[in-house]
Amino acid sequence: MLHVKSFTFNPFSENTHLIYNDEKEAFLIDPGNMPDAETKLLADFINLNALKIKNILLTHAHIDHVLGLQWAYNKFKVSVLVHLNEIEILEKAPFMAKNYGFFFPAFKGEIQNIKEGDELKLGSDTFEIFDVPGHSPGSVAFYNNDNKFVISGDTLFMMSIGRTDLYKGDYDQLITSIKTKLLTLPESTKVFSGHGESSTIGFEKAHNSFLK
Fold it and tell me: Looking at residue 79, which CATH number applies to its domain?
């Protein structure tokens, strides 16, 4: 069985997710921990539950989703999995940080590129990867069919969608991504987003005014 633990971090109220199984293997998704207190909270949960981080996954590389990336890479010494089209976004993170008034050093670590059609294994569980560009050029979602949940990043929120006014955002592309990749999932699928509360595909189909 898989478990999802979510943390809301940094001034952008970004959701960092831990997915782990009963064998204590885990994926760390979008580490956005910023001050020491948030980093300690995340590290304490991982240590208390004796989790072994297998990989760090990025739904995309906007600054709020990578504030804890260097810490996570240095601590767990595992590859960072991200879509090739997000490498430019990750490289621009230090410049984005300056726009928000703080310093963020360029990431230094091992990166592996992922794309739709690839599968990730966490123990006996398999995750499908969906390309869902629009919010950013290399946004991806991680879907587990057996446990019926998807990590949507900033593509789909409860009763909202990701913004498209940032660099290389594309509204039409985002709507297409949502309708062709996410809304086709079973309606009972739980949606863990990059910000805000979790939802379900069925709820969003019925109530999300952006998708009418």
Answer: 3.60.15.10
